[in-house]
Structures are given as C-alpha cells and as structure tokens.
Amino acid sequence: HRDLHSFPTRRSSDLNLVKLKRFLGQVKIKYEHWSQFGNQFRKHPDWMVRYHEYIQSDTIHEQIKSLLATAKGHRMALMCFEANFLDCHRLGLAKILEERGAIIFYC
Fold this sequence. Notes:
Layout: E1 2-3, H1 17-26, E2 32-33, H2 47-56, H3 58-71, H4 89-99
Parallel strand pairs: 1-2
Helix pairs in contact: 2-4
C-alpha cells in the first residue's frame, strides 16, 4: 500500500498516517508514504492544472520511476476520499503511471 494522504481530514480522521500504518501492518500489508506526490496546490483555484504540470515535470520524473520500480510485481493502492474520484489529484498521478505501463483499475 502506498499513501499520498499526509493529513487526516474530517472525512478521514481515523486514517492518519500512524493509525493507518499500524492497522495495515496488523494485516500484513506493507505501507509506504510517498509525500512527494501529495497535492501541494490544493489551495489554488487551478490546482488540478498545477498538479498535472508538476507530475509531468522533470522535477518529479525520477520519483515516478522509483514508484513504478517499487510497485513492480506488487499491487498498489492510491486511496481517494473525494465524493467523485474524478476530482482527486490521484487521478492525474494514475494517468501518468498508466502512460508508463502500469495497469490501473478504478473502483
């Protein structure tokens, strides 16, 4: 399990990093936090455009390669708490991963 969600929100206060890591460990799921893929642009009105530009940039290219290498041969979950997953920055990351060969399932 790979996590991009750094801070609990009203909707996810039970899934902060410490609690989530402890729970997943109890059920033998490896947990890694990849904060570099978090949405640091969420306060901007055009956050989706800015995030998409960021994950397309050379700045994050090596981290995406590392994420793909780490996930190779494993299942990976990108969790989203948006009412509509189309409003989540993780969708942009999923599309980049898919373009680079990852098989993506949207649930």
